[in-house]
């Protein structure tokens, strides 16, 4: 048997042979990897051929592409600058190897359809669910809530000063927290929280920027089953200590949250209604509930989500609205006029310079969300530009304090885009930033 195998391996001819088939000892192009995941449009990306080579043959490479520029093409890792446009582009890698013992040449080629996207920067890598990234970077940090017990939903507020850095725990001893927002200088953190699992709903709490527990936290607004039943969406103004939020604090607005604001530095002064306190079903198209306010950079107005049948199974989105936040109280007479009549637009965030608004949106027929951006002076949904793509759920966008980045929550994976291993997607969500995006 040993002699037979030897004859098969060595062959009976001295003629050269070229093979392009898979075999036990044949080198195989398994995959393609990139130093940016996904590869970045208009930037240099290092692409590496992932090759299995069990016999350690010397391999000669050749790369080619129909789009972009290859700086080199004859090594295992090459440098490719794709077009400065989001899309899918073909990249072909070929290899040649020679088996001296059997005088056999191997030639393999494979074309990859490489998805190219904006530049992304990962800030966290925890497998725990993370959400509600707040006003990054505030005082050099981002603030977010992270689940510590997926079975019960127990969670804490954390702060992070640098991408992939060591997070700092902000809240202690709360049973569940969400929706953190940080004052512009990082001196105060406001969030929605439950102290005990038996609490019927989350109240609004405040701690110092350095953190706090249930004994040191200050209660800003208490949940009860007949007042503040729906309360949430706190957001600090771009400067100062004013907070905007939504609640159904008045009996006339029970089950229909409206917009309010108050000074975190002086809770005794009481809340200020942003909208008329008598607002009800008289609003245009039956809009009677408002949620998730976001401040304009100058702090004089807010953009919010609007709903009919809020908190019910038949809830209906009514698009995005803008309201003045100037005055005590501000003047916002009815009927209210819709600003962006896109019923799929959610979670708006206003850029610090006031020129653009970013929002999340689930396109028809899709289960995942993407991010879109629109000129704040526009009102036609068709002028919005999509800035994240692909099979990942991306939501809760927030502009950085200088407006150069957009932070968001995503379930993108390591290797997203280039290798297409979507079945290995990690289900924990992570905080990302878009450091390159196009303005409409």
CATH class of the largest domain: Mainly Beta
What is the approximate shape? elongated
The CATH topology name of the largest domain reads: Neuraminidase
Beta percentage is 35-45%
Radius of gyration from the alpha-carbon trace, in angstroms: 28 Å
* Helix share bin: under 10%
Descriptive overview:
The chain is an all-beta fold. It has two domains: 15-116, Sandwich (Immunoglobulin-like), CATH 2.60.40.1080; 120-434, Neuraminidase (6 Propeller), CATH 2.120.10.30. It has one helix and 33 strands. The chain has one helix spanning 2-10; strands at 17-19, 28-34, 45-52, 59-65, 69-70, 77-81, 87-99, 104-116, 120-122, 130-138, 141-149, 154-160, 168-169, 171-172, 176-182, 188-194, 203-208, 212-213, 218-221, 231-236, 242-247, 258-263, 272-273, 289-295, 301-308, 316-324, 345-350, 356-361, 370-375, 385-386, 394-399, 406-410, 430-434. The chain has a four-stranded mixed beta sheet, with no helix packed on it. The chain has a four-stranded antiparallel beta sheet with strand order 2-3-6-5, with no helix packed on it. The longest helix has 9 residues, at 2-10. The termini are far apart. The model is unreliable at 1-16 and 417-426 (pLDDT under 50).
Give a brief description.
This protein has 440 residues and is mainly β.
